[in-house]
């Protein structure tokens, strides 16, 4: 595995209920194999309501949701007012192109936490309920007409630990060949 680059945590958040937005916190605790302590999406098996309805025994590949702060900047330029935690992320990053990471990239957060990127967040209709037109703003198309989902990435917790705003993020890429992220 090779080193990638260093970035940092801008904010951390959680919600004990299944609300679209979360609440910013001074810190969060990641629990190995489970997710964010106190968050509604904590668990070994899938916790997102739509996925539970389809198959509640699926592994939870969405234990931690990350969004890059640069997306909030982009949305502001388009006239949207989206603050940290508004789109339900647990960790808001800056200086890291989350969407370019391959599946299996490991993010070392703070002093001890390690998470592994599992895939892209597939935004649901709740995003338009939050702000009309936001769904279209977080979707794009590349030069070949392929859909680009910009609403963040999902991860699982490999090693627990506390995460705070200002913490550095060290990225370790998996061995090549790299697998591109797909919706999970």
Automatic annotation (TrEMBL):
Leader sequence segment: none
InterPro entries: MoCF_Sase_C, MOSC_domain, Pyrv_Knase-like_insert_dom_sf
GO MF, any single term: molybdenum ion binding
Residue ranges of domain MOSC in the record: 22-172
PANTHER family: METAL-SULFUR CLUSTER BIOSYNTHESIS PROTEINS YUAD-RELATED, MOSC DOMAIN-CONTAINING PROTEIN
Protein name: Molybdenum cofactor biosysynthesis protein
Native source organism of the sequence: Rhizobium oryziradicis
């Amino acid at each position: 595995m090779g080193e990638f680059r260093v970035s940092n945590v801008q904010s951390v958040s959680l919600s004990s209920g299944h609300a679209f937005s979360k609440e910013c916190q001074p810190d969060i605790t990641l629990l190995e194999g489970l997710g964010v302590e106190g968050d509604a999406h904590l668990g070994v098996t899938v916790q997102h309501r739509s996925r539970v309805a389809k198959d509640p025994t699926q592994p939870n590949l969405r234990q931690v949701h990350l969004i890059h702060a640069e997306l909030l900047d982009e949305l502001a330029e388009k006239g949207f007012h989206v603050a940290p935690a508004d789109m339900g992320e647990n960790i808001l990053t800056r200086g890291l192109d989350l969407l370019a990471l391959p599946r299996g990239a490991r993010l070392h957060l703070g002093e001890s936490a390690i998470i592994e990127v599992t895939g892209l967040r597939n935004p649901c209709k709740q995003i338009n309920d939050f702000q009309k037109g936001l769904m279209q703003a977080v979707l794009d198309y590349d030069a070949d007409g392929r859909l680009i989902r910009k609403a963040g990435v999902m991860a699982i917790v490999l090693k627990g630990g506390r995460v705070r705003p200002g913490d550095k993020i060290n990225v370790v890429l998996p061995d090549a060949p790299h697998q591109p992220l797909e919706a999970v």
